[in-house]
Amino acid sequence: MKSTGIIAEFNPFHNGHLYHMEQSRERTGSDYLIIIISGDFTQRGLPAVYRKYMRVRSALLSGADLVLEMPVFGSVAPAADFADCGVSMLTASGAADVLSFGSECGSLQALEHQAALLSSETESQSQAVKAALRSGMSWPKARAMAYESLGGISGLPNDILGIEYLRALKKYSSSMTALTVSRTDPGYHSAQRNGSFASAYAIRRAIAADDQEFLQAVLPPSHFTSLKEDPCPAVSADDFSLLYHHRLLTITKEDLAQTASMPADLANKLDGERLTFGRTTELIGRVKDRQYTYTRVSRCLTNAMLGITKEDQEFFKELNSAPWLRILGFRKSASPLLSKMKKQSSVPIITKTADARNLLSKTSLRLFEKHLQASEVYRLICEAKTGQSMKNEYTRSPIIL
């Protein structure tokens, strides 16, 4: 039995993801694909465009065998913490032999070289970063350009994640080998499409514009089937505007500064916006600057709204960013994989939320309940938008195909 793990958001699941899964299975000869998927909030700090259950069904219909949910403490986090959580979960499962991830460069050797550079930063690299910052670049762009100028790869988003995956594999002394698959779309931030491939960014724009011609070309049949089976509205950060502003209005500046990933000066800027109501995107646009990018502000705002604190993140990391493995869906044909994981997993496996109380430690249970509350916030926004009720996290069962 051989299994390949993929860490993803599927926001939404599109033809590029389908290609990645097919290539991963073919190039590794794996019997099973294990997916670690972000729940209802993503690494960019924004809500997922569709509810997680719809995206899980789409992945299962397209060839995934088992889908596990990344806790919100890992999914709404910088690239290094996101990668750390996903790799730790796959390692803890005891069932994954290969980690497969997408990249812009498509070269595992180049990514390993870059990972080595980041693990042992030299004085020349540090000076290059500082010079780029002085030129007016944001910190992420400054680091990317500095390392590229010193023989590394460009700082494109999936390359950065790939590097962090490799560093996490080493950190956990994981037995998994690595595989990278080249992206097929025109680029992470491109609004164009390349035949039947487009970036998730372009697809989310098409969803917002209800461009059905574009969507039919770049989304697999499983996407449309899943929308019928698990109907849910497309949501955006602006649908959460009242919740974001309510949190800023009612939280003290001191408590805001204790929000996960929140720097003190950014907390001060956000506190200054407590009496200025507007859409979430307008709020982020007013606060972001060279130092704190749109993504960084979004993550801090979402963590604040969800009540995720620096203490929560510390406890989560003390548990190796994998306190549990929660099953969101699986195929019946994957029963041998599930049996193997139940025997070899080093952390509790949760199929029913009611079982968590008997399986988790006191600290893990507190984090798990906060994780569920985050998904409940998302569900309530969906219900408010459609007027239709949906099953909550305490009554929803895993999807089985």
From TrEMBL:
ATP binds at residues 7-20, 102, 158, 183. GO terms for molecular function: ATP binding; ligase activity, forming carbon-nitrogen bonds; tRNA binding. It is found in: Cytoplasm. One of its GO terms (biological process) is tRNA modification. InterPro entries: Rossmann-like_a/b/a_fold, tRNA(Met)_cyd_acetate_ligase. Pfam families: HIGH_NTase1. Signal peptide: none annotated. Keywords: ATP-binding, Cytoplasm, Ligase, Nucleotide-binding, RNA-binding, tRNA processing, tRNA-binding. One of its GO terms (cellular component) is cytoplasm. PANTHER family: TRNA(MET) CYTIDINE ACETATE LIGASE (PTHR37825:SF1). Catalyzes the formation of N(4)-acetylcytidine (ac(4)C) at the wobble position of elongator tRNA(Met), using acetate and ATP as substrates. First activates an acetate ion to form acetyladenylate (Ac-AMP) and then transfers the acetyl group to tRNA to form ac(4)C34. This is tRNA(Met) cytidine acetate ligase. It comes from Candidatus Copromonas faecavium (nom. illeg.).
